[in-house]
Amino acid sequence: MRELLVSLLRSEPAQGQRTKGTSVFWILSGTASGLLLMGWLLPWFVNAYSAGVGYSAQDVTVSPPTGVGTVLIYILAVTMVVLVVSPLAEVLVPRLRGRRFGRTADRIRLIAALAGLALTAVIWLLVSVIQEEPLFGSMGPGTFTDSAVWLTMYGYALAALVYGARPWVVGRQTLAFGVAVLPFGLFLPLMFHQAPDFLLWAAGSLAIYMLLALGLNVVVGFAGLLDLGYAAFFAIGAYACASFASPIHSIHLPLWVLIFVGAAIASTFGAILGAPTLRLRGDYLAIVTLGFGEIIPDLATNNVFNLTGGPNGISGIDQPKWGFLDFGASPRWYYWSLLLVSIAVVVLFRNIERSRVGRAWVALREDEVAAASTGINTTTTKLLAFAIGASVSGLAGAFYGSLVSIVSPDDFSFSVSIAVLSIIVLGGIGNIVGVILGSFILTFVIFWVLPNMNQWSTTLSQTVHVPALANIDFTSYTYIIYGIALILMMLLRPGGLLPSRARRIELESTVEGESLAAVQGVA
Amino acid sequence: MSTNGLSANGEQLSASAPGADAGKVIELREIDVFYGRVNALSKVSLEVRQGEIVALIGSNGAGKTTTLRTISGLISPRSGEVRLFGNSVRGLGAEHIARLGVGHAPEGRRLFSRMTVRENLDMGAYSRNDRTGIRTDLERVFTLFPRLRERASQLAGSLSGGEQQMVAIGRALMSAPKVLLLDEPSLGLAPILVDAIFEVIREINSKGTTILLIEQNALLALKTASRGYVLETGSVALSGPSAELIASPDIQRAYLGM
Lengths: 523, 258
What we know:
Chain A is mainly α. Chain A is about 70% helix and about 0% strand. In chain A, strands 1-2 form a two-stranded antiparallel ribbon.
């Protein structure tokens, strides 16, 4: 059983030569397969699907599609065997992992992907030009026919990229990841233009979680300081936004000013917390930060200095409106600004990671004494990590406050700190790409899987006639699911899905120090 | 650029040093060091002059490593004064002292084991900005230890003990130190490697770098050094030119096993 799970999670054979950069390749090809599967299943589950994203889910019916759309289904069925099943076979059947097989298969897959892309586009164009009948026969309002087509086409395009340019994807994995994911991010609001705002709202939350995870990654991943109260800085940023852009103190600053204000205030608090506590290490530092994370929401609850509005929090936070950029009207503007900010933060952090400060953090994490004797100012370097991490959290907090328009102490509980920590553990501590991936997966679980679990089990209970299934309330098991996921991760891939270089080295080198050969070579 | 090929750091300090202290690179004036309530060093005075190799010998727990850590600012003395290049360094942290030109190859090597050899050496030059100077010094380290050139892209933690010691000394040299503190460079090495390391130490010194050396192997240390200090339970028991120390009956009995 464990072997099976390991082989499912590890793309390469456990023993033997590890090829570089294959994880991103398999993630992208898996995503392509997933999108194609989604596009394929969508027409059937379209009602259930829309029920999941914010519609009331009174009666979920599963009806087979009719109309021109069925042609699409048949094309998809053929290409899917090539694009979804064959790579899966390559992963799961060891004998098929040969290089020769890969090259020919990749060519076939590329052709299949391009053909699928072209045919889908043609059919869709025909249908939207002719407009005689809906793509999938008759379906109620608020369905996702356009989104289904877009998702399918994106899946094909991704498959074409991944299989057509496999050496490039493997060689320049970060760039490839960016090229593959960025258009999806940019066009998401357009692809789901028929979807309710909930989807974009969830995407905005994803971006906020991602910013939080990127910031915490600086503290925990780069500098190696365990921070269990990270949500405190998030709260500080959100309350800063709420105080300066709401009727509570009659101050109304624009959001683009507030994100810097939030970041500045949070990083000041980061330094204030950091200065006296950075002598502490490991567990002790974790406990102090844990306490800090409890104190801040408590202060907010107690309405400290009459600033925070007590347990009810602050409501009526301004949502910016500059001409047609009406943030209150549609969350898509939040989404796009958050995307922009996230990209900026990712680029910035990649550069910091490779800068002098980044190297100093690595040295500090490895050996503090040695770092000090090479001339690294340990205190300043650690404080910098805390301040930078906190500033991103404050920035995310300002966005959060503006997006939801109300902040209250409950939004910044310990569970937020743990969720963010889980993201970076899941994705890979210290690896920016891993952290991004982790935030995608965890937000997907939080906003999609968990809310829909009850729905799915009800559907399943009706299908398989097991009434007990309908009575399980999965929402109350959120933390159990979290916990199980984390335990499985630690057992199977302790470095996270995409381990950072340092983690990989630590986990792979079983025999540290002197090998017999090295000693003999010297003597 | 100084004569030894290593570019000088903190030149302004030695330039401004008063005449009486000229030539004194390290001077400890009656320092007391405590670990909690344990008195590790009491009234230790010691001086190292420009261009010397000075050996610090003594049994385990005598305070040799503590002395070195006090000089490089990793520990602060409770009383007494540490003077480097003629100036007091009271209140300066380890990173400032490193920038003054004190290179410390600490006990147990303390490499960044998950960085490559090359990255470890680069970390040694962390506080320097002169790219050409760093490049010539890297070349110099690779000339002193040709083995490190071969292993440049290998992880430091995967090297043999001798190679790790080379990286430790190389990393200290990369800061272009005027004085090098070496803590047991021979620890855990095969005899043939010990000789090789000491050969390099003499070579580094011949190019103008002052060296303060801790060594278990007292005879080897005294033969390499021009002067020596003998530490016993936290204070200086004996000091003098190496030849005199080697000739002393006490030393011969206690440390040289004669």
